[in-house]
Specification:
The protein has 641 residues and is of the alpha/beta class. It has 18 helices and 27 strands. It has a six-stranded mixed beta sheet, sandwiched between helices. Strands 26-25-16-17-18-27 form a six-stranded mixed beta sheet. The chain has a five-stranded mixed beta sheet with strand order 2-1-5-3-4. The N terminus is likely disordered.
């Protein structure tokens, strides 16, 4: 597990934006035994005590350095360049950088101990990774919880001294409303300033605002998919039910690690990390809210409700609830259901009294995002037997139809997010996302059509599947010998070579052909990481089938949910045994169904009730205490022949 070490000087607000390095990277401190750090290109200046780890100093001061392990030294992605100052070369640095790069000052930030003033260049982070922003959904009857009523009231007289609130409620006699105190504070002024022609804004049975004039056409809400890696926001026009704008961004919690376990670990190791992670989640949501409002030409005060779907850990953190119990057996949530709250309580600055709808969780590792996905896909209403897979660091699986639904979670590890992969990266510009290999040649598809920088999850699955198909990787996951490779695939056999102590397959050569270390390659360890991930997922859906008394042949459809599922090749997934072997047309990319479910909950009270009903309809299967899990896991490690 990962630990973020937050030094006292950093945590206690001792940042000094106006103080910079003393010049030349000298070891002279400020007289209090502290050193100055200047981060480029942001120009952020901070002062820290000796011995602080550079990665931690950056993270705790909102300087985003790429990392998927949370600064634990395993992903080798927190690359920075020391422009001034001294940073000794660690053993991990020698594996991550060439001799020329080390001489130029390149270091892994998680291995730099601050012992002098430093001037540091931080490579730009891809804050807008490629993500699915729409997904499979259903048509719904438009009946949102938020409604507006325009009324023209009679002015009071000496013979009619009805109170302002009673006068308003009499014109809305088909509703049983409760007013908020904030509304009462301004009600009289609004009525008189608008000649008693106003619009009442109601959420459920609560009067949250009274606006001058007729504003009934300005009625909006925002649906959030709060992912561990990516956050997606969709602005909805509740008067028509149509999306107005959509935006996505990298979750700002990224410096704390790529998965929920590393983030829970950070909280367990440092009591102040929860507050930091909560603040970063709030910043992510609010930044997206402002972005979609700007794109859609909507004033944030015209947004009266938001819905948030996220996994159990992300939901706990955004609400400021300690998630530690989710990370250790017996994996207990604080609650499945969450109280009614204001949008401001999750950091979203829209209408001051806008409500936030938080999707409930089925279990510690089958959260509100899966409930939202099931709602959108309508699995509880369909007679077809379907398998729902949301593949990521944690893979959530749901099997069933309108008669019965079984759900579980399988620990897949970070391989699909590009972590723990030697040349792995997120799905951002420069990531290889499609790989086609024949006996004679190799073709790549790169996000952004730019020079390749690394392999993202779909590219990883593709390259391994292609090599398995060509038999350059055998069923045990081992690369074949040079002699066998030359016989089977002479056109690409030279790409199969040796680097350090292991076999690798070069996917993209560096500018200097033959320089394996600086090329993009698939290592033998990378293949093993993918094998472990696919074995865990395959074991999960096989156990669900067994518990339901069913076989693979009974399945009629597989839904691949989430951003990764949107870009994963069904053919590659079948070839590796990641998903059941079905005709490819039955394996459907469902896209961002979590976001679609969140939208449906905003558009329809009936669908919102349906999401709550899923808590009673879905049976949760815990894999961690299954005696048959390990045996089946071992059986699933091999690739299909």
């Amino acid at each position: 597990m990962s630990e973020l070490r937050a030094p006292q000087g950093v945590r206690d607000g001792e940042n000094e934006r106006d103080s910079g390095p003393t010049g030349g990277g000298g070891v002279l401190t400020d007289g209090r035994g502290r050193f100055d750090l200047l981060f480029e290109p942001s120009g952020r200046k901070v002062r820290v005590p000796p011995g602080v780890i550079l990665f931690d100093a950056a993270s705790w001061n909102s300087v985003a350095i790429d990392s998927t392990c949370g600064g634990h030294g395993t992903c080798r992605k927190c690359k920075v360049q020391i422009l001034e100052g001294t940073a000794p070369i660690s053993s991990l640095d020698t594996r991550a950088f060439s001799t020329e790069e080390l001489r130029a000052g390149w270091r892994l930030a998680c291995r730099v101990e601050v012992v002098t003033n430093l001037h540091v260049e931080v490579p730009p982070l891809a804050t807008r990774p490629k993500a699915a922003t729409v997904g499979v959904g259903r048509k719904v009857i438009l009946r949102p919880a938020v409604q507006k009523r325009y009324v023209e009231l009679d002015e009071p007289t000496l013979s009619d001294q009805t109170t302002d609130l009673e006068r308003l409620f009499q014109s809305l006699d088909d509703l049983e409303l409760r007013p908020e105190l904030a509304v009462l504070r301004s009600l009289g002024q609004v009525l008189r300033a608008s000649d008693y022609k106003v619009t009442a804004v109601v959420v459920d049975d609560v009067l949250i605002a009274v606006e001058p004039g007729d504003t009934t056409e300005r009625l909006f809400a925002i649906a959030f998919d709060l992912g561990t890696t990516t956050v997606v926001a969709t602005l909805l026009d509740l008067s028509t039910g149509t999306p107005v704008a959509v935006q996505s961004m990298l979750n700002k919690q990224q410096p704390f690690g790529a998965d929920v376990i590393t983030r829970i670990s950070a909280i367990m190791m440092d009591a102040k990390a929860l507050g930091q992670l909560t603040r970063l989640a709030h910043e992510s949501l609010d930044e997206l809210a402002q972005a979609v409002c700007q794109e859609g030409g909507v004033d944030p005060s015209e947004v009266y409700e938001v819905a948030l779907a996220g996994n159990a850990t992300m939901t706990h953190i955004v609400l400021g609830i300690d998630p530690e119990s989710l990370g250790v057996a017996p994996f207990i949530m604080s609650t499945k259901l969450f109280p009614e709250i204001l949008a401001t309580e999750v950091g979203v600055h829209v209408h001051a009294r806008a409500r936030a709808v938080i999707f409930p969780s089925l279990g510690a590792y089958v959260g509100g995002d899966i409930v939202a996905g099931l709602l959108a896909s309508g699995m509880d209403r369909d007679s077809r037997l379907r398998l729902f897979l949301d593949i990521g660091t944690n893979c959530e699986l749901v099997l069933g139809n309108s008669e019965r639904l079984l759900a579980t979670a399988a620990p897949a590890g970070p391989a699909f997010e590009g972590a723990a992969i030697r040349c792995g990266m997120r799905a951002a510009p420069g990531a290889i996302e499609v790989v086609k290999i024949s006996a004679a040649a190799l073709e790549l598809g790169v996000i952004g059509d730019v020079e390749p920088l690394g392999l993202c999850g779909s590219g990883l699955v593709d390259v391994v599947a292609e090599l398995v198909q060509l038999k350059l990787i055998d069923t045990t996951g081992r690369f074949v010998t040079d002699e066998v490779a030359a016989e089977l695939a002479p056109g690409v056999a030279a790409r199969l070579t040796q680097l350090e102590d292991q076999r690798v397959f070069v996917v993209h050569w560096s500018a200097e052909v033959g320089d394996v270390a600086r090329s993009i390659f698939l290592s033998q360890r990378d293949v093993r990481e993918l094998q472990f991930a696919k074995a865990s997922i395959a074991t999960g859906w096989r156990i669900l089938l067994e518990d339901a008394g069913l076989k693979v042949d009974d399945l009629q459809q597989v839904l691949l949910a989430g951003s990764f599922g949107s870009y994963l090749s069904p053919a590659s997934a079948v070839r590796l045994g990641l998903v059941p072997k079905l005709p490819l047309l039955r394996i459907v990319s469902a896209g961002n169904v979590a976001g679609e479910g969140a939208k449906m909950a905003l558009l329809s009270l009936r669908e919102r009730a349906g999401a709550m009903a899923l808590l009673e309809e879905v049976e949760y299967v815990e894999l961690s205490d299954r005696s048959d899990f390990n045996d089946q896991f071992v059986d699933q490690l091999a690739f299909p022949d």
